[in-house]
Design goal:
single chain, alpha+beta, Jelly Rolls, Phage tail protein beta-alpha-beta fold, 3 domains, 12-stranded mixed sheet, 3-stranded mixed sheet, 8 helices, 17 strands, globular
Length: about 325
């Protein structure tokens, strides 16, 4: 794979988009461009990310200058935070057809689901949000949701990653509006429920912790999920989730705590909270570990693992960690 085709870390993509917004919309100070040049020269990845941004900008000539200027001015005036502005900019570009041919909506180039969402987290970040109906949403690492509340329905679209939802009281609406959680593989309806939903490449897992939920996918009848049950589902099938040594909602506490966790499974989970890969030696993957493993600082957790287990952890680069026998 050539450098120009290589995927970029989410953090680098975000920085490039932040610079686009800053230079084009908001920051006209004398120090902005020198600071941008310093950022650009720091790494080849910065230059690659900016080259892709430049590819998008070349299409600006297809939009009349006055409407474009007015639109960008409105975005700048309404900006409350960089994440919100980013989503608005990308929505405008996508509606104008500017990004469809650039490759920036491909999964390999950027987590576009997160950039277009109403609420999102970066890799390694977890955050909690209170919605207008008093529902509480906790987003796990690298996750994104869109929220659409109307007069008679509440809809949450899980676009990326993982979320825990505790449905709210929906004060002011009698009867309470229905709550529907949409995924690429099916939808779940819930009231008075606490549940966790995780997206993977070709399926999703729903785990109900309190209350009841109904699952519907495109090729099956409605399926009732009771408290304590977990299901994997795709568009065409529904299967019980095999009991794992890691609870589906363990991440909510900021740590993975358990007994007899296969090392490979633990490292796969830790890998979700960092940019790059954790390469585990095959002979170690079934080795069982027990304890509490923090998610907020995975470097520290990996070093701790090397202290309490017969393994060697080597940080080859910032993005490549190797775990092998002592």
């Amino acid at each position: 794979m050539s450098l120009r085709q290589a995927p970029l870390p989410d953090s680098i993509v975000d920085e490039a988009i932040d610079w686009l917004i800053r230079l084009e919309l908001s920051d006209h100070s004398e120090g902005a461009h020198p600071a941008f040049e310093r950022w650009l020269q720091q790494t080849p990845q910065h230059q690659l990310a900016w080259a892709r941004i430049t590819g998008i900008r070349r299409h600006f000539s297809s939009i009349p200058s006055k409407p474009l200027t007015q639109t960008l001015s409105n975005i700048n005036q309404q900006k409350t935070q960089s994440g919100a502005s980013r989503r608005q900019v990308l929505k405008i570009l996508s509606m104008s057809g500017l990004m469809l041919g650039s490759g920036w909506f491909s999964k390999e180039y950027t987590p576009w689901q997160r950039l277009l969402a109403d609420y999102s987290t970066r890799i390694g970040e977890q955050n909690s949000f209170m919605l207008t109906d008093n529902s509480n949403v906790i987003l796990n690492t690298d996750s994104a949701i869109s929220v659409d509340f109307a007069a008679d329905t509440r809809q949450i679209h899980l676009r990326r990653g993982e979320m825990q939802l505790t449905t709210g009281s929906d004060d002011g609406y009698r009867p309470r509006r229905s709550m529907l959680i949409k995924t690429p593989f099916g939808q779940i309806s819930a009231l008075n429920t606490r549940l966790t939903i995780r997206l993977k490449h070709d399926q999703a897992r729903v785990s109900v912790h309190e209350g009841l939920a109904d699952l519907t996918n495109s090729k099956g009848p409605e399926r009732l999920i009771r408290s304590g049950e977990s299901l994997w589902f795709s568009a065409g099938r529904v299967l019980p989730a095999i009991n794992s040594s890691i609870s589906p909602d363990a991440w909510v506490s900021g740590a993975i705590t358990g007994q007899h966790i296969p090392l490979g499974e633990l490292l796969d989970e830790l890998g979700r909270y960092r940019v790059g890969i954790i390469d585990c030696a095959p002979e170690l993957k079934d080795q069982q570990v027990s304890g509490s493993f923090q998610l907020r600082d995975t470097d520290k957790t990996l070093r701790f693992l090397a202290q309490v287990q017969p393994v060697r952890v080597e940080f080859r680069t910032a993005y490549w960690v190797v775990v092998r026998p002592v």
